[in-house]
Design brief:
This protein has one helix at about 5-25, and strands at about 30-35, 40-50, 60-70, 75-95, 105-120, 125-130, 130-145, 165-180, 185-195, 215-230. It is mostly beta strands and about 230 residues long. It has one domain (about 35-230): Porin (Beta Barrel). Strand 8 (about 165-180) and strand 9 (about 185-195) form a beta hairpin. The chain is elongated, with a radius of gyration of 30 Å.
């Protein structure tokens, strides 16, 4: 016996009604994940390159390493404290020698930096596919703990370069990758500035260097990788 057209229509109507209900039961996973933990601490290292100034006696950068701590504040804003060292070298320059022959050797430089930063997360308190890109800006102090070199004793006292202490400003761009809820990797590039003082001997008019400033602002760039623990 052939099915009636009314029975076929009832089956078709039921199928059409059930189709959107089945579709609504499906969930589309979101690429965003909320960051429950607010604090993190970790170790970092990488590479730093710094301008050495007009006469080349400033520290040239080296390998940075240190410790960082961060806490999420409100919305996309975080506070960070960073303490680190840059293990590198500097040229010892004798301004009394002919141009091209003024570098008499190298001395160790161990620049210590302590600074505070504000971090702005582009994804707020969430990660996108486990990534959280950010921008940082901050400042602090930099000083050399390596002390004087034996080569400095060869120079006249007024020709000896001393790093002393300097304001240290920076701005950075990077991202965090959340391996797990507690472990994250952080990579970033940082542009920085610090000021070095010119030894008075370089301003001696008898040396014909022309106009010599009392100090120079030097630019630096760094690339670092951090291993973070979050809680």
């Amino acid at each position: 016996m052939r099915p009636s057209s009314s029975g076929f229509g009832a089956v078709l109507a039921t199928a059409l009604l059930l189709t959107p209900l089945a579709g609504s039961a499906q969930t589309i996973p979101s690429p965003y994940s909320y960051l429950e933990r607010r604090q993190e601490m970790g170790l970092f290292s990488g590479h730093v390159g710094v301008d050495t100034g007009r006469f080349g006696y400033g520290p040239s950068g080296g390998v940075p390493y240190g410790l960082r701590y961060g806490i999420e504040l409100s919305g996309p804003i975080s506070f960070e404290g960073v303490a680190g060292m840059i293990d590198g070298t500097r040229d010892v320059v004798d301004p009394g020698r002919p141009e091209g022959d003024r570098v008499i050797g190298q001395a160790d430089a161990l620049i210590t930096t302590i600074d505070a930063r504000l971090k702005f997360s582009f994804t707020g308190r969430r990660s996108w596919h486990r990534l959280s890109p950010f921008l940082t800006v901050g400042g602090g102090i930099a000083f050399d703990v390596a002390g004087s070199s034996e080569l400095d004793d060869v120079l006249l006292p007024e020709d000896v370069f001393e790093f002393g202490s300097s304001f240290f400003g920076n701005v950075g761009l990077g991202t965090r990758w959340f391996v797990t809820d507690r472990i994250a990797l952080r990579g970033e590039g940082v542009f920085s500035l610090w000021k070095i003082e010119t030894p008075p001997g370089f301003s001696d008019p008898n040396r014909n260097f022309g106009e010599v400033s009392d100090g120079e602002w030097l630019r630096g760039t760094s690339l670092t990788l951090s291993l973070l623990y979050r809680w």
